[in-house]
Amino acid sequence: MHIPDAFIPLPQAAIYWIIALIFVALALRWARNELSEEKIPLIAVLAAGIFAIQAFNLPVGMGTSGHLVGGALAAIVLGSPFAAVFILTIVLIIQGVVFGDGGITTMGANIINMGVIGGFVGYYSYHGIKSAIKNKFIPAAIAAWLGCFIAAVVCAIEMFIAGTFPLVPGIIAMGTYHAAIGIIEGVITAGAIYLIYSTRPDLIELDKGDA
Amino acid sequence: MTDAKNTNGAKMNDATFIAIGLVIALIIGVAAVFLASGDPDGLESASLYVQGEKDLTSDAPEDADPEAVGLGTFEYSSPFPDYSWEDLGKMGDIIALVLGIVIVFVLIFGVSRIIKIKA
Prior knowledge:
Strand order of the largest sheet of chain A: 1-2
Distance between the termini of chain A: 35 Å
Order of helices and strands of chain A: HHEEHHHHH
Oligomer: heterodimer
């Protein structure tokens, strides 16, 4: 879902950057106030893992491949959507600047789609679904799927505003492919949460925000 | 760093957790070099679809360019495009990915520490 430079005209790319920077500032404030010293190893390892797995494209049929984005995973594990913004911002900076994956001008839009939308949709739908079905892992899979799918539809709308994709075919294609890619997002998110929960339940905040 | 052995329910201390986590990340990264799918990703595939280069469910043609719909407003040349180190083949890809994994780990660790120290 990494938008390359060519896909968004500069004035629009600048607006996405401004919105993204507001969330990045809030994420830094979250890290300063909420991220405890004990969780620094977890957030660093999680970010390294998310970077690695983003290079691992899996085929989803339809001539298309996809990979975990990790916004929902970061937000659920660290107990805040801003954790997703924090991790994905750094991952996207390295991917764009060092590896040419995702544009520089479009990095703001990519931070919004994958960090902000992936993180916020993932985090709040996780806690919503978990209060309905009493399970720690299935809601994580559903929330991660939703984060991927909604981010893809928003991306299609951004592509329409940019004049790059037509509206309806863009939404159909982005929605269809990411409905499939979202299954990867869901399975890996639930699996990773299970792994962390089995080894370091003290580090994970699955129950934060529950009534 | 705290000794997590005595905290609630931890089955692994911090150093072990970091080591195992990083090893998993490195295994995934190296495996990706050999096993990752070369098919276009969701956005590229959608781009080919709206260009009429492929049907919704068909394979993408080999020579299709997902960025052909682009505006060409800005060009940036990254040092390791497509997670590869020119002329070094698969070994270059592995070096590039391992480098990326280490940079991300160090950056997140460093930024978090600096933010906490300043707080």
